[in-house]
Amino acid sequence: MDQALVIAAHGSHLNAESSTPTFSHADTIRATSAFSEVRESFWKEEPHFREALRTTDAEEVYLVPLFISEGYFTEQVIPREFRLDEWDPELWSSDGTSADVATLTADDTGQTVHYCGPVGTHDSMSDVIVQRAKSVTDDSDVGDGFGLAVVGHGTERNENSAKAIEYHADRIAEMDRFDEVKALFMDEDPEVDDVTDFFESDDIVVVPLFIADGYHTQEDIPEDMGLCEDYRDGWAVPETVDGHDIWYAGAVGTEPLMADVVLERAADAGADVGAAIAEVRGQSGPGSAADD
User: Fold this and answer.
1) How many Å apart are CA 245 and CA 221, to the nearest integer?
2) Which tens digits make up the pLDDT trace of 90-108?
3) What mean pLDDT do residues 61-77 have?
C-alpha cells in the first residue's frame, strides 16, 4: 500500500520566510523516495490543512505536526481541520512531552491517518539543538568551555510550552557535553533578556526552539539579549555582551537535520523509513549530531 507523509505547519500571512523550513525539509524527505507522496500544509498559508488529505492519493497517511509543543494547535486545530473526528488528546497518553501516535480515520476521505506527536517534543530534537550549536560555531567539537541556552517562547497560558524547552535542556545537560545548559524564555522566568546572568562560561551558544526565523528570533530576542540596539543594524556572531561571547544560532527549525526528526516521528508510527533516516543523517556531514 502506498504511504504518504503530510507535514502540518503554522505558516504566516505576514512573514514570507515562515514556510521556508517546511518546504525545505519536505524536499529533503521527498528526495529519499521513502513515501509515495510528501505534502506540505499550513494553518495560515496555502496549501491549507483542510485540503491536504483531499489532494493526497495514498490510503495511508503519516501526519506530522511541525510544531514545538503539544497544546492548542496539535490537540485542537490540526485534528479538527483534518477532520479526525475520532481524535481525543487522551489517545496520546502524554504528560506534555511524550505524545507518540494515534491511528484514526479521516471522516470525509476514509484515509487511515497516523497522527504523530509534534517534532518539538521528540528525543531527536536534542540532537538538532546540538547540531545547531555546531553550525553556528563552525566547530563539530563544540561544548568544552561553552554554555548552551535553549530558548523558548514560554507562556502562562500553556504549561506545555515551557515543558518542551526544559525537557531538551535537561537531556542535553545529561550528555555532559557543555559546561552549562539552561532553559530560558521570552515571556516567563528565567528570561532570555538576562542571559549573561545565568552563565559563568565566557562563551554562550543561544539556540531558540522555534520552527522558523521571524519576528521573535530575528527582532525580539537579539535586541532583548543586547546583541544590538536595532535588529535592522544586525549583529556579529559572536557578539560580546557583559564580557561574554554570545553565539546566536537563530531558529532550530531551520537546521537541515530537522528533516530527520520528521522521519523519526513517522518511523515511531510504523513507517518503513530506516534507509531515509540514515540518508538524511548522513547528509549532515562528518561530526554531525548523528555521529556523536
Assistant:
1) 16
2) 999 999 999 999 999 999 9
3) 95
Q: Which domains does the chain have, with CATH numbers?
A: 3-121+256-291 (3.40.50.1400), 124-254 (3.40.50.1400)
Phi/psi at 35 (5° precision): -125, 150
Residues in contact with 209: Cβ distance below 8 Å, sequence separation at least 6, in sequence order? 68, 120, 125, 129, 150, 151, 152, 164, 165, 168, 252
Q: Between the CA of residue 68 and those of 58, 231, 252, 253, what are the distances in Å?
A: 27, 24, 10, 9
Across the strands, what pairs with 255? none
| pLDDT tens, residue by residue, 246-279 | 999 989 999 999 999 999 999 999 999 999 999 9
Rounded mean pLDDT of the chain?
93
Tens digits of residue pLDDT in 185-224: 988 889 999 999 999 999 999 999 999 988 889 989 999 9
Rounded to whole angstroms, the Cα distance separating 66 from 61 reads: 15
Arithmetic mean of pLDDT, 38-48 = 96
